[in-house]
Amino acid sequence: MNENNSCCLYNGNVLSGFALMEDCSVLIEGGKIKEVFSNQRFEKKHFGSDVQIIDVGGAYITPGFIDTHFHGYGGFGVDDACYPEIRSEKEVVDSMIEVSRLITRFGVTSFNPTVYPASENIMPDAVSKIVSAMGKETGAQIMGLHLEGPFISRNKAGVQRLDTISPVNLAYMEKLWNASKGCIVNMTVAPELKNMRELALYCAEKGIILQAGHTDATFENMLEGMQAGILHATHMYNAMSKLDQRNPNAVGTILTHAEFSCEIIADGIHVHPNLFKLLAQNKPMDKIVMVTDSLKCTDQKTTPYYANGEEMIFIDGLFKRKSDNVIAGSGITMIKGIQNMVKFGFNLEDAVRAASSNPASVMRYTKKGFINPGMDADIAIFDKDFKVLTAIVNGKIRYNVL
């Protein structure tokens, strides 16, 4: 693309985030979407020599994918800030830059690096190092951090280390906020914990989106959390109290309250495909956010695999902790998740929304997630076989095989 970041994506099928527009073109100028128009209108337009014309050959042009729960890819990622040893800020920044480059090949244009809980003397430093990578990316943009703890349930820890899980501690939260330089976007918490209301009110003041996850909450706990502003959920169905005939618990509360949005991992293993149908029947489509929860060792070329400082094995399509076979995060990519959601019964438009416009809306990214004039030019282009051809971040081509 030229220095002015001006191009016209011609001859595509645009999934805008609110509609399918066949045989259309998208004009990009100065990092923004300037205009969307039909191919017929394209033929009548006159473009300056500074506008690059790219024929996408009938491929899908969609908003760039936004992964709001992501640990790493290809041997690089968030873990490098904490485990297995404390690494220098430069090493952490280099790792985050590399992972931002790698994931554009799957259509990801922005993401929230997800930090596992760590001890109080380590986690703020890890947060600070990761934030130092913001603005230095060569691929997908880091929007801010997702903290997956430390204020979560020991009963629903999953592969989180028990010695890193903390009771609610506002002084600790203040340390994390200051270390992030105000760049914590979302945070997973257990609504049932003592003093959670005080934490929720603090986070509301800071604009942090709280997610119910790694939680053993009852129905009453979930309602109290909703009153305090906890209205999003981490990896639906996983690491949360199950639906019971006498207590809806976390799963039932999320399913029966339309105002609750939720993440879901679309690998078909963390969650059975039929439970996607149950979710679609009970949840407004704009409340479903597809995430990868992919680990640092996803598609890593060498073994052994490590995540959160512990050795992992990859078996039956997902990662498990070697010591006890507890399921960890996934090895999926965003484009594969979209393909799976279509296989599970979603139409393509809704699957793309779950990966783009829905996370943008839930995370309050007001300039991302839609192909509409004035929005950031974050775009993914993929063909009918779900092969990503191009990823554009803020108007700049970051990946291209067209």
Topology-level CATH name of the largest domain: TIM Barrel
| C-alpha-based Rg, rounded | 21 Å
Task: Count the domains.
Answer: 2
Mean pLDDT: 95
Beta-strand segment tally: 23
- Main sheet specs: 9 strands, parallel
Report the total helices. 11
Distance between the termini: 13 Å
Give the overall silhouette. globular
Top-tier CATH class of the largest domain: Alpha Beta
Describe the 3D structure.
- The protein has 402 residues and is α/β, with parallel strands linked by helices.
- It folds into 2 domains: 7-63 and 369-400, Urease, subunit C, domain 1 (Roll), CATH 2.30.40.10; 65-362, Alpha-Beta Barrel (TIM Barrel).
- It is 25% helix and 28% strand.
- It contains 11 helices and 23 strands.
- It has helices at 39-44, 89-102, 123-131, 170-179, 196-206, 219-227, 249-256, 273-282, 334-343, 348-355, 357-362, and strands at residues 7-15, 20-29, 32-38, 52-55, 60-63, 65-70, 72-73, 76-77, 108-115, 141-142, 145-148, 184-189, 209-212, 232-233, 261-265, 288-291, 305-307, 310-315, 318-321, 327-330, 379-382, 388-393, 396-400.
- Helix 5 links the parallel strand 12 and strand 13 (209-212).
- Helix 9 runs antiparallel to helix 10 (348-355).
- The two termini are 13 Å apart.
